[in-house]
Amino acid sequence: MFTGIVEETGRVLAFEPKTEAWSLAIAAQAALIDLAAGDSIAVHGCCLTVTQFDATSLRFDVLEETRRLTNFSALRPGGLVNLERSLRFGGKVGGHFVTGHIDALGVVEAFEAREKDYYLRIGVADEFTRYIVHKGSIAIDGVSLTIAEVTDRSFAVWLIPHTRSVTNLHEKRVDDPVNLEFDLLGKHVEKLLLTRTS
Questions:
Q1: Do 37 and 51 meet the contact criterion of CB atoms below 8 Å apart?
Q2: Per-residue pLDDT for 90 more than 70?
Q3: What domains sit in the chain, N to C, each tagged with a CATH number?
């Protein structure tokens, strides 16, 4: 479980196919604090298990399915990725509950400065628009954000300067893919309602 409050951006060192899985190596600092093999780290909002680490980097095994269903296929050495360690008892919940299980890919449709803030609009497939709620929560590449605007096939959020400076969202360009995780409560309520009406 995560909160969507990114702790740092790590830098991709390598992402390459191995015999049993893809191997993802990331240079990091904050994510290495009190780390143990087997710990969960959200990488671009996707929950991954640490398989190896040293004083400056960590490594994950990535399934082909994960690579296919996320924006990991766009990862390149040198690129920045958002990192968050899993929530611990007694920790702060500054964003919203995020599981690290990616629901869909979105596509950047617009990203522009508007006075002091930045406007980011994401296109989504029709089948997922029911999860987009005005003033609701969403995780974009693992960043907890509030939905400010909803259209038939897109939604928009506003980024404050702090969010741009501590995440990789400042690198996003039109047509870039982003990982989306919709609000957990909304998905559960939908499932319960469908079960009751069946």
A1: yes
A2: no
A3: 8-85 (2.40.30.20), 104-197 (2.40.30.20)
